Amino acid sequence: MLIFKILSTLIFVAILPFVYIVRAIQGKFLDGWKEKLGAVNPPDLDGEVVMFHGVSVGEIIALENLIKKTKERYPNVKIVVTTGTQTGQNIAHKKYGEIADFVTYFPFDIPFSVGKFLDKIRPNIVFIAETEIWPNFANLCYSRGIKLFIINGRISDSTFKSYKIARVFFKFIFSFYTGIFTQSEIDNQKMLYLGANPETTKVMGNLKFDIKKIDSSFDLGQKGFRVILAGSTHHEENDLILNTFKSLKNKFKDIKLLIAPRHLNRVEQIAQLAKEHKLTFGYRSKGDGFTEYDVIILDTLGELSKIYTICHFAFIGGSFNKTGGHNPLEAAVYAKPTITGPSVHNFRDIYGLLSRSNAGKIVKNQIELQAYMERLLGDNEFYNKACTDCKTVFENQKGALEFVINLLDSLIPTEKTDS
What we know:
Helix content is 44%, strand content 16%. With 419 residues, the chain is α/β, with parallel strands linked by helices. It folds into 2 domains: 31-210 and 399-415, Rossmann fold; 226-397, Rossmann fold, CATH 3.40.50.2000. Helix 4 runs parallel beside helix 18.
């Protein structure tokens, strides 16, 4: 390990100036580089400190319920949240600014950066979301008696293929971890193959699936109609959805469209497009319903996650541009099949799980989008199977949040509340 520490430090010192110059030329600087070098300035963190790390947006979102539950259950515990990217940092501040005691960047994996970071943060427990393996960080946590866990762990097939080459090295690094908990049995077997300890490597499920149904009822005059819900649509997608809906309506007379733009400043654009397509439309804010209109525009805040209850199936937006998609589980939790475009990198693991069955479908273009919608509308047996698959996916993935909370109970039992 000493040799690795020396080599990693020398390589880092050698390449850092070049990385800095390249990013400066690109108009970008090393986001949070001082913090990544260990120069963090936290508030008073006396007492028990639990640290959560998610490298970027997807991981930070996955940790949301766990972080909130930890704060609720252990109000006296200090919570630190770290990320590796600026976008992750922005989301972390937005979501946890009033929950976490400190939000900062994860240190570069070189001994002096990690050492300075741990001196300031002094965590008792560290949870790394998904699978970020940092040898120096793991070694220093181990040497300081800090309990280090991988949670929601997963390894893609391509990553696993490259990791297998260094199997002996990973077996050594995994010995520094207190526990490794994976999303699936497949991920668990990959970890074990790489040398993780069988006694402390277990399947926990996926934290992203620990969401609850919201008991709400909506009357938009949907009785007798099948509602297609287009959720979190972006500029380029509004015309695509309206055009697809108009084509489908020629064949399926009982369908209606509920369209929810990601940003409310697109409401008037949607209204104009609906006029151009000669579709009648109303607004949720005005109490309009499907008995009078073909299309209802959801122009209110905070209702989308609840209103998925009334749809037949859902298109999830942000997926026909470079956004990277939005969360399909808000629909799937109600056993509503989802369809999305090809850009899903923000939720790649979730779409991967859904698309292994009929619970979710990734389409490449409008032709595939319309064809799949036609199948869901025209083939009742296929549609019912898709709904059942949604339930099955959730059943197979549930329990991850409870798993980690039970783990915390065993580590800091005197702090928990009755909640």
